[in-house]
Design goal:
alpha+beta; Ubiquitin-like (UB roll); 2 domains; 5-stranded mixed sheet; elongated; disordered N terminus
Length: 255
């Protein structure tokens, strides 16, 4: 039994300093011909987020190290990167989940997400990603006169597309897709997810326009249903399911 004056047994372990090795794929186009790996020994605690360790590298070891970050709370999606080969958000990854279980030195590999051109170190050119996003018209389309009151929607109608409202445009899903790696002209999972969000919105009148766009040779039919996108999504969106629902809407002309 723990008394009121005693700290929980796990608190000492959580705050015990440890040292981990970050193996980061570095690339500076001004001096490097090819990306290369560099390793950094960084102090940490089990409760640290990986993002904290990246800041340590930049602030105390190498100020030229570059990566994107913003809110640091898993909402903005800025710090998407490959962590031990898996697309994740650095701000959502805790050190206790990455530490070696056998007592050996923990080595964490970090690289930029794939399928988008690396501009420097861990940040990539997001323009093609957002171009695909904008091309599916990710906004409410309504014709006729403006309503005199708000557009009412039932809870059931809202639930129909609730899952795809969670997208934070981090590109984890799109950059985990092997089709997108091989052909960047594919719209990619994130664009289709955001089209889904409005295609199945009962207040929207632009479903046919979006379905015509996604019926293109670079649209939903390029999906090979590998589920990489669903596995990579940090918000738990059923991405593959959303893509299949858009395919069915095209096949049966029914939303």
């Amino acid at each position: 039994m723990t008394t009121a004056t005693e700290a929980p047994a796990s608190s000492e372990t959580d705050h015990t300093p440890i040292t981990v090795t970050l193996k980061i794929l570095r690339f500076n186009p001004e001096i490097d011909e090819e990306p290369h790996w560099e390793s950094y020994d960084v102090p940490a605690q089990r409760t640290d987020r990986l993002l904290n360790l990246l800041f340590y590298v930049k602030d105390y070891i190498d100020g030229t190290f570059s990566f994107r970050r913003s809110c640091a709370h898993g909402v903005c999606g800025s710090d998407a990167m490959q962590i031990n080969g898996i697309n994740r958000l650095a701000c959502k990854v805790l050190m206790k989940d990455l530490l070696s279980k056998d007592g050996k030195q923990t080595v964490i590999t970090i690289a930029p997400i794939k399928g988008l051109t690396t501009l420097k170190d861990l940040y990539v050119d997001m323009d093609p990603f957002f171009e695909a996003y904008r091309s599916v018209k990710p906004y409410l389309i309504a014709y006729g006169n403006e309503p005199t009151r708000e557009r009412i929607q039932s809870q059931a109608d809202r639930d129909r597309f609730d899952d795809t409202t969670k997208c934070i445009l981090c590109a984890c899903c799109t950059s985990s897709c092997p089709v997108y790696w091989n052909d960047g002209s594919y719209f990619g999972p994130a664009a289709i997810v955001n089209a889904h969000r409005f295609i199945f919105d009962s207040r929207d009148e632009g479903a046919e326009e979006r379905l015509d766009i996604l019926n293109d040779s670079e649209g939903v039919w390029r999906c090979r249903t590998t589920f990489n996108c669903t596995d990579a999504c940090p918000r738990g969106i059923q991405v593959t399911k959303a893509i299949q629902e858009v395919k069915r809407a095209l096949l049966f002309k029914r939303v």
